[in-house]
Design brief:
Layout (H helix, E strand, L loop, with lengths): L6 H8 L12 E5 L25 H13 L5 E5 L9 H10 L3 E6 L12 H7 L3 E5 L5 H8 L3 H14 L20 E5 L10 H16 L5 E4 L6 H10 L2 H10 L14 E4 L5 E2 L2 H6 L53
Parallel strand pairs: 1-2, 1-7, 2-3, 3-4, 4-5, 5-6
Antiparallel strand pairs: 7-8
């Protein structure tokens, strides 16, 4: 098992690099809970159908109040679990859009076929929500191995439904008639096991060809994410005796060029109960914002968080390995791995 040593902080110190500090936040990432229709092997949230944690109405209203107050927050990034299963999902999304904020929905695609979600795709399109959808491979065998039997077929059905509404034509395309902007549909890739993602541009080209030729599906961008050594994925590696070696692999591939683009520099994460964290991964490990427990009910504005220290731990090496990794995909720059 991993020790409590912060190998990320040690790596920065070894290279004479300063600890991380936050810039003025521009993105508010909100985890609506751990309820999900899937239980994926790589899930850092440990989400699943038996989980009950879910953001309540009062917390959603407080999130919207912060968005209204802090005009520098340009993006609301909604995640879970399956965020669409939260009963207040539409209140949050529609409220943020009325405030003219960009909204991202991190969707697992199969949720669009769940009972009660029959019009969710149409809701997303009507509110011009940017959909970021998990599809860890373009073959059924690999997707079902990571996400469960039938996940690939359900994902493809979701993609086709979104395509039919106009999603996936933003890259080089035009907005739909009456729309302010194209409907963006990005896909997320992460490796099946303890390895770094391949180069994002080349893999995106492969995805584009295979999905179009084999399935008639289109998308805008592919986002490559490294698997973070926490929770379900870390437990699986620990059982195999491979957890420490994976963290060593991430450390050996440390890329200082990725530091400037780390999501924690411009993002604040909110748990389903309103607890603040520096990122979604820290949130799941119970690492509070800057190392000091705080809630959205304790602060008047997120502007006050500018220049704060960012809490780190060994898993942060996953965001700086190779081409770098964030909620927006690869961060660019060459790996410093030998």
């Amino acid at each position: 098992m991993l020790t409590d040593t912060d190998r990320f902080a040690a790596t920065l110190a070894e290279r004479g690099l300063p600890p991380l500090r936050r810039r003025r936040p521009t993105t508010l990432q909100v985890n609506l809970g751990k309820v999900c229709n899937q239980a994926c092997r790589h899930c850092h949230v440990d989400a699943g159908p038996t989980r009950t944690e879910s953001m309540q109405a009062a917390t959603v209203e407080r999130v919207l109040a912060l968005l209204a107050h802090d005009t520098h927050l340009t993006t609301l990034d909604v995640t879970g679990g399956a965020p669409e299963l939260n009963p207040h999902f539409r209140t949050l999304v529609s409220g943020a859009r009325r405030l003219e904020r960009r909204v991202i929905d991190r969707c697992n695609l199969t949720v669009l076929s769940e009972p009660g979600q029959e019009d969710t795709a149409e809701f997303l399109a009507a509110h011009q929500v940017h959909v970021v959808a998990s599809l860890p491979c373009y073959t059924a065998e690999n997707v079902d191995a990571q996400r469960g039997g039938g996940a690939f077929a359900g994902s493809v059905a979701g993609l086709r439904r979104l395509n039919a509404l106009g999603y996936g034509a933003a890259e080089g395309g035009d907005a739909l008639p009456g729309a302010d902007q194209p409907l963006r549909l990005d896909l997320v890739y992460n490796p099946l096991g303890p390895s770094l993602p391949p180069e994002q541009g080349a893999l995106e080209a492969d995805y584009r060809v295979r999905l179009a030729a084999d399935l008639g599906v289109r998308f805008d961008r592919l986002l490559c994410l490294a698997n973070m050594p926490i929770h379900r994925f870390a437990d699986d590696l620990a059982r195999q005796g491979r957890l420490d070696s994976y963290v060593d692999q991430l450390r050996d591939a440390f890329n200082p060029e990725a530091l400037d683009g780390l999501m924690c520099r411009d993002l604040v994460s909110i748990d389903h109960d309103g607890t603040l964290a520096d990122c979604d991964f820290n949130q799941m490990l119970g690492l509070p914002l800057g190392g000091r427990p705080r809630s959205i009910f304790d602060i008047e504005s997120l502007s006050s968080l500018q220049d704060d220290a960012i809490a780190t731990a060994s898993h942060c090496l996953g965001c700086t390995a190779g081409q770098g990794s964030s909620c927006g995909g690869a961060l660019g720059g060459a790996s410093s791995a030998p």
